[in-house]
Every structure is written in C-alpha cells, then in structure tokens.
Design goal:
With 201 residues, the protein is an alpha/beta fold. It has six helices and seven strands, in the order βαβααβαβββαβα. The radius of gyration is 17 Å and the shape is globular.
Length: 201
C-alpha cells in the first residue's frame, strides 16, 4: 500500500498543519508498517503555476524546450498521486484559502482523462478509490455559523475539488491558532488527538 504525504506550509517546524499531517502519517504507519511513503514538500520543490504555454501543450501544441523540465515535474506529481492509495495533505489557510503552492500542485493532478472525465451526464471523478486526509489549520474561527464563515475558502475548496475527482476527503481541523497561545495549544492538541484516533484503514 502506498501513501503520498504532501506539505504546503511555509512555516517549517512552526507549522501546525505540518505537525498534524506528520501525526496522521505516523498513525497510519504504525497501523501498517509496510506502508510505502512518498513525501513531497511543496515549499522545497514547488511546481510552477500554469501558464498559457502549459494549456497550449495540453491542447496538443508542441512543448517549448524550456518548458520540458516543468512538464516532467508535473507528470511526476500526477504519477505520485495516481499511484497512491492514501494521500495526506497539510494545508494551512492563507488569506482565506489554500497556499498558492498547493494550488499549483492541485492544477497538476486535476487532469481530464486522468482524474476526471466529461461525459453525457457531466463530469465524472476517476480517483474515487483513494483515501484523502487533509490536516488544515486556520488562524481564526471559520466554521459554520461563525461571523467569518463566508470567508472560509480552504476546507470548502478542498472538499469541492477532491469531490470533483471522485474523492470524499476526511478533515482534521485546527482552528483559532492565531487567536492566542492558549487557543493555539488547545487547537493543536485536539488535532493531534484526532490524528492518533484516526481510523487506520
């Protein structure tokens, strides 16, 4: 069984989402010692954002020589995702949504003919056999019924985009980490406990 572990926070060891994603992977590794883990840190090996040249190549235009290494990197990212049985992603909220480096990765895995297709009845997800677990962190409180709920574009986006490719993602959430030290400690502790108690398979 293969697991793909993705981190996207720019905060390194100070990141809550990184701590929680690592705890999730540790929990799954303990339950399945033979788990084959591939790790990708999107801040250390970022993928380029899509350009007009990328889209032209996707439509059949010849690939410019200078785009070759980036197209190869994108193909590797897609292959890693397709090969994984489980995907664990650390995703902090930046300005109400996902980090741009995570968006660049998502743009390489949401690919027609690979993870979704269009048919007579509309789009159909092709990645439904995967388990995707998202460790998200938010500086404030953005849950349903809160004053800032309308600005929540992290969990809602990730739920939507993975749903589009056929995956029903799981979430472990640390909220209010910038409200104050005690809120951060409580949020992190709760998320780590949820990781420890995560369903193994």
């Amino acid at each position: 069984m293969k697991l793909l572990h993705i981190d996207s926070s720019v905060l390194g060891p100070h990141s809550v989402s990184r701590q929680v994603s690592a705890a999730i992977v540790d929990r799954l590794k303990q339950a399945t010692p033979s788990l084959d883990i591939v790790y990708r840190d999107l801040t250390q090996t970022p993928l380029a954002h899509l350009s007009g040249s990328h889209l032209a190549v996707a439509q059949g235009a010849p690939a410019p020589a200078e785009l070759g290494p980036d197209l190869a990197a994108g193909a590797t990212a897609l292959d890693e995702f397709l090969a994984a049985d489980i995907v664990v992603i650390g995703a902090p909220m930046y300005n109400f949504t996902i980090p741009s480096q995570l968006k660049a990765w998502i743009d390489r895995i949401v690919v027609a003919g690979k993870t979704f297709s269009y048919g007579a009845n509309g789009p159909q997800g092709l990645a439904g056999g995967k388990r995707v677990i998202l460790a998200i962190s938010r500086g404030g409180y953005y849950g349903a019924g809160t004053p800032l709920a309308a600005l929540e574009h992290l969990e809602t986006y990730l739920r939507g985009v993975f749903g589009f490719i056929g995956v029903n993602p799981e979430f472990i959430i640390a909220d209010g980490i910038q409200v104050g030290p005690e809120h951060r400690e409580k949020a992190l502790a709760g998320a780590l406990e949820a990781a420890i108690n995560l369903r193994a398979a």
